[in-house]
Design brief:
Low-confidence stretches: none
Order of helices and strands: HHEHEHHEEHHEHEEHEEH
Structural class: alpha+beta
Helix content: 25-40%
Number of strands: 9
Strand order of the largest sheet: 3-4-2-1-5-9-8
Largest sheet: 7 strands, mixed
Number of helices: 10
Radius of gyration: 19 Å
Distance between the termini: 48 Å
């Protein structure tokens, strides 16, 4: 039984109006291109839950802006890569034969949080077609952000992250941190690093028919993202704003400046 009362979590309920006020105070503006990493539980007691947060974000950025969230579905992977938990070798063929194909309108997110899972099903939201690393977007440049998401090298030059960079977008952490930053993955692709590559597999739809496909990708690693992000904030204080959204700490930062800084930082600090 949960004995934590709403007033123990938040001094007053978090609403669309209060979130709009907090977002604008942090610096989120109409017309902005915004990549959001959010934690609903960190915000406090939100009246209406995840839809309240999405409504507030849409109200602030407006249709002239573009709202983007990662909507990854990493469970659609080759069984040899399943580690949490691993599956028996005897299951491999069945998984490859029977895994449901990725479908943007149907496939749920995994590990992305309630806000992203809610956002992906909103009216007029588009979702890229990568079976593991999709992104959803709404607003003026939603089609540009989500179209032609490359199956191979999924967070690199032909990804929504790169389109965000082209649009000079910003990143918003709502109760999250640099540890969750997909944008630093883009820096991994652009940096001169010897990450190595591997072959992955997923079930997708090809001309309306389910197929199991293989594709290559970098062996990217987020183990030092927190350290990289902290260094970015120290070295580029004008590129990051920190404030309260609901009951959580939020950060608003320039994606292009983060990526450019991370390229140099990763090259200097990874062995």
């Amino acid at each position: 039984m949960n004995d934590i009362l709403p007033e123990d979590r938040s001094p007053e309920p978090i609403t669309v109006d209060s979130l709009v006020e907090d977002l604008r105070s942090l610096g989120v503006k109409a017309g902005q291109t915004l990549l959001v990493h959010g934690s609903l539980s960190s915000l406090g007691w939100v009246c209406g839950g995840a839809p309240t947060v999405v409504d507030a974000l849409q109200e602030v950025t407006g249709e002239e802006g573009t709202l983007v969230m990662p909507t990854h579905s990493p469970g659609n992977r080759d069984p040899t890569d399943m580690q949490n938990p691993p599956v028996p070798d005897s299951w491999y063929d069945t998984i490859r034969d029977q895994m449901p194909p990725f479908r943007p309108a149907v496939t749920p997110t995994q590990g992305m949080g309630a806000i992203a899972e809610c956002f992906r099903s909103y009216p007029d939201v588009l979702r890229s077609k990568h079976p593991q690393h999709s992104f959803a977007a709404w607003g003026a440049d939603a089609e540009f952000v989500t179209e032609d998401h490359s199956l191979a090298y999924s967070l690199g030059k032909d990804s929504p992250l790169a389109r965000m960079y082209d649009l000079d977008g910003d990143v918003l952490y709502l109760g999250t941190s640099h540890e969750t930053s997909t944008s630093i993955h883009l820096a991994e692709y652009r940096a001169d690093l010897d990450l190595g590559t591997d072959t992955h597999g997923s079930a997708v739809l090809v001309d309306g028919e389910r197929e199991w496909v293989s594709f290559g990708d970098l062996n990217f690693d987020d183990g030092d993202f927190s350290e990289c992000g902290a260094a970015f904030e120290r070295c580029k204080p004008k590129a990051c704003r920190t404030g309260a959204i609901g009951d959580c700490e939020a950060k608003l930062l320039s994606q292009s400046e983060l990526v450019d800084f991370a390229i140099e930082w990763l090259e200097a600090n990874r062995c």
